[in-house]
């Protein structure tokens, strides 16, 4: 019993689903031998089509009705069910002998009408139709009227869908079977990638507006509208836990915006009304999110019922809206025509390739920031105050005491002592160089990879992208090793305390002038070294002051020289050489060295992209054929069967 009830519910739900659309024609076929006035199908038709505009009654097997009064039976059904008489037809089925003798359809129809006229000779003219031919003409007439009514909108919707499909197809990769063309295409893509990298170094162009679909959508608005002609009936059309769904779709560029109305939701307030917005992003576009201002209003017979608005970040495949939009109690009190209107404004669209152009800054700006950060880190190792602090002076005094009596004249400071101190001060330089080197490496590799992925779509040429991405990584890894050797050499150079630069002596002289010249402005780090205090120092203390000044002067010289050398070598090995000299040649060599068969395979699109393109092309072809048929349709010319 339970299974029977479940099956009945499923069948009833299926019938409702097919009968509900207003373009559906509901043909009820009932046997003349039963009481069809109580037919369940007629009851359902009356519920879903109360005006009877699209409901037909076909009474069949009239020749097998043995009792008198069939005419009265049909007339009574017309009056009690409220079905227009022109929508009711009595027909006779083909007989067994007609089938056995293979009578032509025309002859069967002629015999049918002879028999029908005898059976219904007392029927009033215009009461209801007789015969399959009359029923067929009525079906054609209804279809013809529906087509004429919906044709303009249908044509517009097909034209819009054709444009969207064509755009989607153009965005999908195409299979290339010619190896020569494949080589040319690969070289073109590699060249475009390297040119984009050079632009990032030069600061000539930004990738902010490379996505045409972003441009076609950002800063634009659209309005969506849903109309429910009979709200009470819409609320009744629910079956089980399913929602009656109304939807409207429009496009901004290639972005699909869909407004969905659920007459019943599955929330706590299960009979409330939900309103939702769905945004579909074109496949293959690197769109991360859209900032959308979204407001919705509901009107009942022209009077505003409710308005909601919000600003929201839509992410791929996200559905957003209100549940409930109208509460159950409010919805049950409404009747008549309901109109739901949504106004949508796309404020901003951001892409997944933000790493190419973060915060509007290009690679050149990112590298400049890393250089400034590196210089700041070196500066922070030992400040100017450190070299003239009491702590540093005591440290030097301890070193002097520890080396007293060694090489040099009696009472003099050992000549190697300043060199030992400077080496100790430089012990963290190697670590800072490594951190700077790693930062520049990561920035260059990340930007180059992002640009490569932007120039070569994964769906278009997945194997080529994978190959070039690996080669690009190998190039930067190799240059990273070379740079590590260069940095080690630069650090080693600083072990030899030599310079032809007069900056060292100029700095020493400048500090002494600042100390002893009363008219000059003394820097704050020299505040403790006033002339009066130095006069009363012992010879050993004065030697300490001289050593402080000389170590500070050489540190400034070394620091400036060291930072310049590290930055120049880093830019040369990780930026200039790869981008200007190595990358293009290496990528072309690894891509174009393959034989013809492998070259075609290398440039082949992803399998799912090929399948989707084939599917979309098939759909486009059918829609174009439909448009061509509609162009030849003349709604002023009646179908031949109706003439």
Would you write up a description of this structure?
Helix content is 54%, strand content 15%. It is built from 21 helices and twelve strands. It has a four-stranded parallel sheet with strand order 1-2-3-4, sandwiched between helices. Strands 5-12-9-10 form a four-stranded antiparallel sheet, with no helix packed on it. A four-stranded antiparallel sheet has the order 6-7-8-11. Helix 11 runs antiparallel to helix 15 and helix 15 runs antiparallel to helix 16. The two termini are 52 Å apart. About 2% of the residues have low confidence.
Mean pLDDT: 82
Number of helices: 21
- Which regions contain 5 or more consecutive residues with pLDDT less than 50? 206-213, 354-358
Strand content: 15-25%
Shape type: elongated
Question: Main sheet?
Answer: 4 strands, parallel
Q: What structural class do you assign from the helix and strand content?
A: alpha/beta
């Amino acid at each position: 019993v339970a299974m029977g009830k479940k099956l009945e519910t499923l069948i009833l739900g299926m019938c409702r689903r097919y009968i509900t659309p207003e373009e559906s024609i509901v043909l009820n076929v009932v046997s003349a031998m039963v009481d069809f006035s109580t037919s369940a199908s007629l009851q359902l038709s009356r519920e879903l089509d109360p005006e009877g505009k699209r409901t037909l009654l076909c009474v069949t097997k009239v020749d097998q009705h043995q009792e008198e009064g069939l005419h009265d039976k049909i007339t009574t059904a017309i009056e009690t069910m409220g079905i227009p008489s022109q929508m009711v037809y009595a027909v006779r089925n083909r007989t067994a002998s007609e089938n056995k003798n293979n009578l032509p359809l025309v002859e069967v129809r002629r015999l049918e009408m002879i028999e029908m006229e005898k059976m219904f000779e007392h029927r009033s003219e215009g009461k209801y139709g007789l015969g399959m031919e009359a029923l067929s003409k009525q079906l054609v007439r209804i279809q013809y009227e529906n087509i004429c009514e919906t044709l303009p909108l249908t044509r517009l919707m097909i034209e819009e869908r054709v444009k969207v499909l064509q755009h989607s197809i153009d965005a999908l990769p195409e299979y290339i079977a010619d190896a020569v063309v494949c080589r040319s295409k690969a070289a073109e893509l590699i060249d475009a990638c390297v040119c984009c990298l050079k632009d990032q170094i030069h600061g000539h162009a930004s990738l902010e507006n490379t996505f045409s679909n972003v441009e076609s959508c950002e800063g634009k608005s659209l309005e969506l509208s849903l109309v429910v002609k009979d709200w009470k009936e819409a609320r009744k059309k629910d079956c089980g836990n399913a929602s009656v769904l109304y939807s409207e779709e429009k496009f901004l560029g290639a972005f699909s915006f869909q407004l969905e109305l659920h007459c019943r939701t599955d929330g706590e307030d299960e009979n409330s009304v939900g309103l939702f917005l769905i945004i579909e992003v074109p496949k293959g576009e690197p769109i991360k999110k859209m900032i959308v201002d979204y407001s919705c209003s509901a009107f009942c017979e022209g009077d505003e019922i409710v308005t909601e608005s919000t600003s929201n970040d839509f992410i791929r495949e996200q559905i957003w809206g209100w549940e409930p939009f109208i509460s159950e109690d409010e919805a049950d009190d409404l009747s008549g025509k309901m109109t739901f209107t949504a106004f949508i404004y796309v404020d901003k669209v951001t892409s997944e390739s933000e790493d190419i152009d973060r915060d509007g800054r290009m690679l050149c700006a990112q590298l400049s920031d890393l250089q400034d950060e590196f210089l700041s880190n070196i500066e922070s190792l030992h400040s100017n105050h450190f070299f003239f602090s009491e702590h540093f002076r005591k440290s030097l005094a301890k070193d002097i005491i520890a080396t007293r009596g060694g090489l040099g004249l009696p009472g003099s400071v050992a000549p190697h002592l300043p060199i030992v101190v400077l080496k100790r001060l430089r012990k963290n330089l190697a670590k800072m160089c490594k951190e700077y080197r790693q930062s520049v490496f990561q920035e260059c590799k990340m930007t180059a990879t992002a640009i490569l992925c932007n120039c070569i779509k994964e769906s278009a040429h997945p194997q080529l992208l994978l190959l070039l991405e690996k080669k690009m990584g190998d190039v930067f890894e190799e240059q990273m090793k070379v740079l590590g050797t260069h940095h080690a050499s630069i650090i080693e150079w600083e072990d030899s305390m030599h310079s032809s630069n007069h900056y060292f002596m100029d700095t020493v002289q400048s500090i002494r002038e600042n100390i002893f010249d009363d008219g000059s402005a003394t820097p704050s780090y020299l505040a403790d070294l006033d002339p009066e205090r130095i006069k009363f120092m012992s010879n050993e203390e004065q030697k300490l002051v001289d050593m402080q000044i000389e170590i500070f002067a050489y540190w400034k010289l070394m620091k400036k020289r060291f930072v310049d050398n590290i930055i120049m070598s880093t830019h040369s090995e990780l930026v200039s050489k790869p981008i200007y000299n190595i990358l293009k040649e290496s990528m072309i060599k690894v891509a174009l060295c393959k034989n013809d068969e492998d070259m075609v395979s290398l440039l082949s699109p992803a399998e799912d992209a090929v399948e989707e393109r084939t599917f979309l092309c098939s759909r486009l072809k059918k829609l174009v054929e439909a448009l061509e048929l509609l162009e030849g349709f003349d709604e002023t010319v009646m179908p031949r069967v109706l003439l």
